[in-house]
UniProtKB/TrEMBL annotation:
Family annotation (Pfam families): Lys_Orn_oxgnase (PF13434)
Needed cofactors: FAD
Protein name in UniProt: Lysine N(6)-hydroxylase/L-ornithine N(5)-oxygenase family protein
Transmembrane segments: none
Keyword rRNA-binding attached: no
Keyword Cell membrane: no
Domain of life: Bacteria
Similarity section: Belongs to the lysine N(6)-hydroxylase/L-ornithine N(5)-oxygenase family.
Keywords: FAD, Flavoprotein, NADP, Oxidoreductase
Pathway the protein acts in: Siderophore biosynthesis
Amino acid sequence: MSYHPAPEYDVVGVGFGPSNLALAIALDDCARKQRVSCRSVFVERQPSFKWHGGMLLPGSNMQISFLKDLVSLRDPTSPFTFINYLHKSGRLLDFTNCRTFYPSRIEFNDYLRWVAGQFESVVEYGETVVAVEPVSAGQSVVALRVLTQTEGGEERSRIARNLVVAVGGLPHIPAVFRAVAGDPRVMHTSGYLDSPVTAGFGGCAPRVAVIGGGQSAAEVTLDLSDRIPDSNIDLIFRGHALKPSDSSPFVNEIFNPEYTDYFYSQADGQREAIVRSFRNTNYAVVDPDLLDQLYRMTYQQRVTGARRLAVHPRSEIVAAHARPEGIVLELLNRDEDVRHRATYDAIVLATGYERSPVPAFLDPIRRYIEGGTLDRDYRLQTSPAFRPQVHLQGCAETSHGLSDTLLSVLPIRAQEITTSLASTRAKQFDPEQHLVERVYL
């Protein structure tokens, strides 16, 4: 009977979206410039790199400057900048002639994929992390066993001296829609482009409900009106009106990396007040240019008398039922306290995402977590007997500010995590020490 040790790594990254991609760059810089090397691997459940693939809509642009790419704010001389991507792609002068700081979302995804392609040797695609278990020596936890499952059902195991989790958010399905969530006529924006609605309805004039009052709802509404010109769209949301996002320069300073220090230093109550004060930068708001397009569309309908888009503010959905003829929604008009029913061929949920502070696959080590809060360097606070570092990216809005789920702080956050990992690497383990218990094949 032979023995097979699980491979050991200084860092295992869970997820390989923009956050851990920025971390891969920072770790690479650390190895080249500071001669501190961390053997790393990243595990990504998607079969290949794709960033918000369900919403790579024609004509949709980024809402932040291309200078807030994976590395420019930390090192503008890096070969992984957006500008170098343009140069290598032969489009630098052409992009300059566009006279914009805001590339299309499709192009920015291509930039991210270009960078990811340069780190293929440290990424395993098509694997889902199912559990992270403690590896003990005496009374201490000295490492973590990361258990994954491939798309083909194969189980794999790796030993991690440290863990960095960046799994993004899960689509938020409001409770009223959970009973019909499995119906192919009901889709979340995260899967919009892969859904049946974008393939058309065989020449029929469909009736579609878009649920939500934010950026994604507006983008889907405009895309549907272009993609299926004879569609009838109801844009349904609870607010009093579609509101513009605030991207003015002074307000935008809350997304500066140094603002994280200020936010983190505040008491919990003050942090909550700051988030409430600046919600109009990111939540249930729409880019002003999109608002203008939507309003012009509704105005032109008044001119022609042809209704294609109806906007329903102050409307709450109180029930949803799947019927052969369509998805039946029961809506409550909150102004008049009147209910009515409407039947739709498709429902698009532009209802955002949920982010768990501590993902379920960390349950086996949850007893070592103290309070579930993060240190300033995004490290979970754990008991003294727990030696691995566990860093979380993209789920610390309540402690690190509104920028935590966005792209603005990626390079600086990646550098802070890398500095933390590198500073403790030599203290954790003898490089020659093997942590794995030998297991039978």
